[in-house]
């Protein structure tokens, strides 16, 4: 009886130890977890100065989406080992979850020492990680906050480091940022704007404006791009540059995207009934729409509702949005393309993964980024790049359109290179649906829908 009691006590003690271990240890990497970091951080703050570094991996989601989650897990384990080796005795390494890690440096308030440590981390990421017999290159971004300079309690210090990390990611990744008070102000502004955006749709504050797209061979209006505007009750009409980044991360992004599809299809049908002709209309998709399983249903239902032929609608995606895709979105785009809906790759040529994505998606058109058009008549390199894109697109069975065309010389260069269509201020600024209808209906009446290429 006594022996059984002793075994029971021993088993309970062992179980308690296991539970305590699980409560403070990350099961994937065996690093301390968020709970362990918070406990250690509270102790360090109470003793004096310390520094907190938050890291996450640049491009980790792309690894998960292309190589699978099992490879992603092995990559995280490899990253944990390399971070531990790189930091050594200099700090306390923890995994907070996902691809986010933390490093606590005790008794440290020296930015130069932390900068040196950050550079050592960056250096350790220069070599590929081995996972499932594959060599994988990923980078990292780092946000740094100091106690007591920036914050004097655990949650505040974590928040400050997180804002610094967000700033580093916003700069394109691969960098480190120290927390600054201006980041808090920026965060507060984003929060306020996010709240306003959540009510903007309900209050009918969004509008669609339309920019003409022309056929370079004939000068005729071939399509338009629908562009979002926000008629803010206090600040007037706002262009996307003022709010789109916050909207893309907002919970209402998908709902706003659905509204854009609805409005664009309704306008396209209205234009045709008014006699403007079969005009193609381009709509930009948010990442939230690509992540959703509703995309095919929303688009196909809207086309039927307005009796709009599928080939009148063109969905525009960017590298930023497709790198955050899932397999469900690829299937939805393929199904929509099979109906006849066009799929355009916007801002083509500016991203590192553009070429590898061309065959993954059911694309029908490439939109050549305005950065290659601005000096196309003066820079041989830009002209050569555009020519290469046009030839490549033809080989893949894709159409092309050049963005940002403003001058007759740019237009002439594009026509000489064999570019099919163009868009830009040379052919018209974004305008309301009624203004576009009246402008081009009048032109079609007098010149069979031909746009004068000599117009400024």
Automatic annotation (TrEMBL):
InterPro entries, sorted: Biofilm_reg_signaling, EAL_dom, EAL_sf, GGDEF_dom, Nucleotide_cyclase, Rev_trsase/Diguanyl_cyclase
Q: What positions does the domain EAL occupy?
A: 190-444
Show the Pfam families listed in the entry: EAL (PF00563), GGDEF (PF00990)
The residue range of the signal peptide is none
Instruction: Tell me the Gene3D superfamilies matching this sequence.
Output: 3.30.70.270, EAL domain
UniProt xrefs under CDD domains: EAL, GGDEF
Domain GGDEF positions: 48-181
From what superkingdom does this record's organism come?
Bacteria
Q: Which PANTHER family match?
A: BIOFILM ARCHITECTURE MAINTENANCE PROTEIN MBAA (PTHR44757:SF2), DIGUANYLATE CYCLASE DGCP (PTHR44757)
Protein name, please? GGDEF-domain containing protein
